[in-house]
Write a structure and sequence with these properties.
Length: 138
Amino acid sequence: MLKFIATTFLAAASAVSAFAAGQSGEPRYLIKAWIQKYDKSFVHATGWCGTGYLCTLKVGEYDIRIRFFLSGESYRLSVRAAPDDPAACCVFANRSEEVFVSGGSPHAEKLYFELPDALADKGRVEFGTLFIALEDLL
């Protein structure tokens, strides 16, 4: 099922990026993001990022933050939940709130709930997977 979702996501990404290639103006990156939650529900979004080093894309109730480096092929990625969400999401496999991505599109990252210190010894609780694709339009 996950392969089907990823394939569908990539097909949609290709169609959107082919359309976006003809666009003119400020946008530099076409960003496509999909969060497949552990319970198999999902949210997705497509958006544009300009030439600045910081880009935020709203995906459902979550903010995907991308901090680009000079080359644009490497970036730092974080996911923030709505402030009133009782179950704090999201940290990555290394328990950090931000992960370094060195090229490769699409890219997938496992997301976990951020457990309070009192429960940290219980291990990680999986939230889902973030699939993200960036296309440099320049």
